[in-house]
Amino acid sequence: MTVAIVGVIPGGNAEMDQQMLQQIGVSPDSRPAGALARFAGPTEGGYRIVSLWESEEAWNTFQAERLDPYFEKAGRPMPPVEVWQVDTLMA
């Protein structure tokens, strides 16, 4: 089942987001397995990231293999995310 992942990086910005993407090896030409779409932009107090995944399992794999090590190396915890089941998707 498709899921949306919603999170906010407190104090984050576009430059930080681009650096993170580069360090974890994600680009429009190199998307992780199961990733369908990603949207990111400023919000009050931080930087919001919304991504769509083919399944929660695909998201969990990406988080464990790329995000968790990135945040551990940065010396800070990964911000909490909301996992939201997507019943309808129009693109």
Brief characterization of the structure:
With 91 residues, the chain is an alpha+beta fold. The protein has 2 helices and 4 strands.
Verbal overview:
By secondary structure, the chain is an alpha+beta fold. The protein has one domain: Alpha-Beta Plaits (2-Layer Sandwich), CATH 3.30.70.100. Helix content is 33%, strand content 33%. The chain contains two helices and four strands. The chain has helices at 14-24, 56-74; strands at 3-10, 35-43, 46-53, 81-85. It has a four-stranded antiparallel sheet with strand order 2-3-1-4. The mean pLDDT is 95.
Shape: globular
| CATH architecture descriptor | 2-Layer Sandwich
Oligomerization category of the chains in this entry: single chain
H-E string: EHEEHE
Tally of alpha and pi helices: 2
Measure the end-to-end span: 17 Å
CATH topology: Alpha-Beta Plaits
Structural class: alpha+beta
Spatial sequence of strands, sheet with the most strands: 2-3-1-4
Q: What CATH first level would be assigned?
A: Alpha Beta
Q: What share of the residues lie within helices?
A: 25-40%
Tally the structural domains: 1
